[in-house]
Specification:
The radius of gyration is 43 Å and the shape is globular. By secondary structure, the protein is an alpha+beta fold. Strands 1, 2, 3, 4, 5, 6, 7 and 8 form an eight-stranded mixed beta sheet that branches. The chain contains 60 helices and 26 strands. Strand 7 and strand 8 form a beta hairpin.
Length: about 1500
Amino acid sequence: MNIGKAPFPDRTIVRIAAHLPDLIVFGDFTSERPSMDYFDGVLMFVDISGFTAMTEKFSTAMYMDRGAEQLVEILNNHISAIVEKVLIYGGDILKFAGDALLALWKVERNQLKNFITVVVKCSLEIHGVFENQESEEGLDIRVKIGLSAGHIKKLVFGDEKSYFLVVGQAVEDVRFAQNMAQMNEIILSPNCWQLCDRNVIEIERIPDQRAVKVNFLKLPSTYNFDEFFMKCMSNLSYYPSGDHKNILRLASTLECDPELEMCLQKYIMGSILKQIDDKQLRGYLSELRPVTIVFVNLQFKGQETADDIAQAIQDASVYINSVLKTFKGQINKVFMFDKGCSFLCVFGFPGEKAPDEITHALESAIVIFDYCSQIFKIRVVSIGVASGIVFCGIVGHAVRHEYTVIGQKVNIAARMMMYYPGIVTCDSVTYSSCGLPSYFFKELPKQHMKGVAEPGPVYQCLGLNEKVMFGMSALNFYRYKGYPLLGRDKEIRLFLHTMREFLQMRCSRVLMFQGLLGYGKSHLIRELGFLAQDDNHRVIAIGLTKVSINHNFHTIQLLMASVLGLDTCKHYKERQHHLKEKVKNWLDVELYCILNDIFHVQFPMTREASKISEVKKQTELEELFMNILSETSREEKLIFIIDESQHIDIASWKFMEELIRKVSVFFILALSPFLETPCKAASAIMKNRNTTFVMIGEISSKDMLSKVCFDLHVVSIPKELEVYLVEGSCGIPFYGEELLKNLDHHKVLIIHQYQPEEKQKKNWNVLFKNYTKPQINVDMYSVSTIERIDVCDIASGVRLKNVSPPATLKEISLVQLDSMSLSQQMLVRCAAIIGETFTTSLLFEILPCWNMKMMVKALATLVQSSIFYCFQSHKELRHLTNRKNATFEVHHRSLALQSSQKIGTETMFPYSPVNEERAEFLSEDLSPEEIGEKILCLFDNTLIKISSTEEITAPTEPCQCLEILEYVLLPLAYHFTILEESSKALYYYLEVVAGYINLTDYYLAYVYLCEGERLLKSMKHEKSWSFKFEVAIFYALKGQVSFHVGQMVLAKKMTRKALKLLNRVFPYNCFSVLLQTHIEKNKHANYINQKAQNLPPPQKRKMAQLYQQISCLSTIWQIYSLDCACHCKYFEHLAAMMQVNSALKTQDDFEIIKAYLDYSLHSQLGGYQGLWFKYEVMAIETIFNKPLNKETIEMILHVAVKLSHIKFLMGYLELAIQLGFRAYRMWQLTKSPNIEYMVLHRLGRALFLKNRYSKYIEVLQWMWSFAVEEEHTVSQGLFYFNCLDILLYGGFIYRTFEECLHFINEKEDNKILKFHCGLLLALYSDVAIWFARLEEWGSFEIFYNKAKKLVQRRSISNIQCEGFSRYLECQVLNLQKQIQAQTENVQDIGVELLKSLENVVAQCSTGPLYYPRIYHLMAYVCILMGDEDNCNLFLRTALQICDVHGNLLERSWLTISKKWWYSDKVNTDESWLQIVLLLPQWDEIKLDELKIKNVEQNKFRFKIAITDSTF
């Protein structure tokens, strides 16, 4: 029994034979059908438990994991072990029935005794394999085995396809024995027990049964089982021996035999033969797949002979196969148990998926039931239909396997077939998904079905019952006022226009809406039906079904029943009475009976009517209906609405065509695309001059989001969910609904009450929160009637992108996938794995066995089918992805008249021409909210693509700019200095300086500028262009360093020198400024036109000059923005405009973007309303359609960082947060230098002002990690500045004051920190405020004076503004101390301080973000000076600005101050010292939202010491 496992040859006949038993492979292939063969043998039925549950677990899994692959692996690991044992012991696997198998030992009658012993031994070993085995999924896998022996008959039947059965008492016995077995038991049937060798089998009697249970074999010690076994095997004709002893199965050695191969192919399903011919791997054939199972059971009368049964099965199988073939169904298995024959039929196997699969399955079931019920020898026909996801795949061993289905739906179909005999039944999924009306079904009483825990409702399929049809096809026009029809404004406007034409011109109109499944056609026409209702309008609406097209004149029958009022009649007598009144003027009484069939009445048959032919009868009916409709149309306007119009029958189309010509009616038709060429009448209606044919498109993202909010009964959804639904739905409403249902099924969505964080003005700048809100203004579900407003969130830890799609969408995808060839399917599957966008070279690497010709051919077909799209550039790709397939009107008449023009694939799926103008990303008709949404989506998409696309993969390590400076550029500068090549040395020193400025190390930049200046002085003043240019760069860099360290006078001087050397003189007086401004405006318009004309860029030298001009002009306007003098704003405006013009002249998109954003910032700070928004939009448009490469990513990163800076400075905190997080994520992916700490600081400040402390602390942790890892002193300084602010204004402790003070004392002389005057000013001022609040005035003076020295060194940076606002607070606290000490001239000091505060507000460089704090300080000065009116004014102003910005931190402090100042009682316990002693540590409150909320009260109370005289 030590049989090896030699590999078998890869021949087609061998692969086919692996699907069939030896009984067929080595049998006789007679052409007679049916044919019978008689023999004796032993049967083994093995049932494996656990696999159905495992299949259900994988099929309902939430994530798209390796469900099918794992299932195949687990399933075949167990089943192959059984198959191997059976083959080793000489058995022949007859059939795999899901997770069970039937094996045969075909032997002579006199050998049964010995072979039963062999089979028992085999069964015991199988049990031994599973005795202590548990699958990796934790499911307990056990087997039950039944054995029988005796006479067996083989029945072969079929026609084009062949099938076989084993029948006889032994087959019934083995099923009986297996049913009696419990887990890990072996049961011998009574006959098997009679025939076996009782001396060697230890059994256990079963009470009241003749069958017995096997315990073990009791072989004598002298018994040589191996010898006995080999003797038995020698009696088997096809047991491997001799040269083949090392193989498991002799069929795996078959040589090529075309005749045998052709015979064997008849036993294999067509879809499997295709896979075998294409040499697909067995694993590729296995998947979890949505299918429809149809189980057909034929019970015989019991008196038949074997030949009678064989003939009945033959007749049934031929008919069943012919019916299934029409609808792409297949017979997978045929069984013969319990004196009945069962056919397992499946719709939706790989390669056979078709639209309307479930409907076709039900139709097939009804037709099969009707036919088989008429077969003479068949007593009862029972059919069960179930739909859902099951495992479809190869089960078994490499040498013997079959394609089968396993799953709960298979069991449900089988159980319904057995427990509801004599009818066609279906499960709830089939009932709800078939698209047939409910009156086709009848719900049946529930029954407990073995092996099915919760089958759900069971329905009987009645077929098309004409007697209950009237009234049940009508559509209602009820609509919920709080649930509007979204995204169909264009269609409604078109309807209203056509309706007006119909009413005014009194001629027929046809409005046809065509769209694919899920586009909302039914919802649309219901809305139109509601709008069409009027006192003088007769609106009749019906909905057709998929079987309507098979019934002659069915549509007109339904319409006329409604016109005549028959749809409301409850009895045929009432219908007859109505008909008599309606037709008496148009139809002879003798012909009333021709109405019997069409309206189900019972007028007596007359001699005249009996003589009328069917054609004449149809003509009489059409003439009658035409007259009735003509008369009715004179009294009221007839409006017919038909849903699912593609199911209109041919006779109805013909009548409608004639009706439109003769009678004034208005048809509104909703239809899906015709699967076949429409009939002539339908085509004529489409081409009629009075027909408007509309292709319904997808709805917009905005409408999709609104619909989602309505469906969920919420006001907002998370951004992540928005992206998932918008991308997944593709603008198709049904897809969105299914995705939502799927998420709800997996409990992904969490609906909770909305907790408003702050009140803020609803505009584009502050609307971007974590939630995306619906973009239409409607009363959702009568909001006034509900007690709370809900929002939606996503359950923690959920990965939306990996969530398995719903079964409905899988079904739609599989229909399209199965319409392709196998090679095309392989390409699509590969593409689905590697990403939405890929290159052909990448595919070729993945599929190296393909040749290029084969791949190109497959790709070309997919492109022609609009499954793939081919692009030569990213620009083309972006252009298409940004386009929506909007609703558009099709002029079928015009197309028909152009007979010479062919309407082919290119017309239906047009490609954008290469020179087509770029679609505007931010068109003028978009709202600011939509624009902001698109901008954030751009950043999100960029992040996704950076993360997923290897071609533009960001570096895994941080930027090595510092290393390049220190180890490349500096050594080169030293090298050329030693060689006294001063010009080259100067070049590299200037490069070094530029690098250090970029890294914000202004000290080293200053050092190497000094080195460069020394070299410059030693050089002869040449008149060459290059020397002049190098000098200009030198002054420009010197101006930048001066600017960043706060030396504005010097910076202005150096920058002006640089501009002069660059041939770009900046004016000195106001008159020249006004004149130059006028010139620059004209230049600006000219440059915009040049940019549109795509003129060639400037020459290299000119380009270099322009780059330096841009840098200098940017510095100039920022310098002037710091000056509060009135005339400086004109200088500032001119410099900003000149910067834009210089950038436009370069035609460099990156420079243009920078200039646009600088101009936007200048416009916002300067109060130029309208300009800033325009230039932000222009900056975004510039990058939107650029291919995503490293350069574009750098641009996008700059835009994200710059926009976050602008929005933060202008007080748009919510947007600043959104942009800040994206900018930080981009930094993580791109590792751009000198980005992270700036982004994190602004992000943290915005979160701090919004009181989002948890996120704020998280950002600070990121900043600290960066500061420590990179040893970045500036980041450390910013970190401790934030920690001090938390102490002063946050109300809790993150790092202690002592730790912060230690850092300042240790690092204040740091060579880098020393040149960051804004940061030092902020740190010194914070410490001074701390000591002032504690009234430790000595310590206050030390740090106040340090800060005072830095005040004049100002810049436009955020940290500078923050530091200056803290310094102003120091001054205010100092004033309060002076008032308290009654210092002389204190009132004058107060007045001057108030003017200084007012000047800060008026200064252009002061962003609105800082206004609340300044107004707060102004209010405090006023209250100190006794001016309560102005105090109230400033407080109100500050509070209003806080509300607009959403500045919760400042607002809470303002509220406390207002209450404190105007309170009659002053609580001394609320002194700063008392508050400091009670400040909690962050670790104490971080997990308690209430405690976090309470820290808002830990604010400093400004003391009031009013002067003797008022201000």
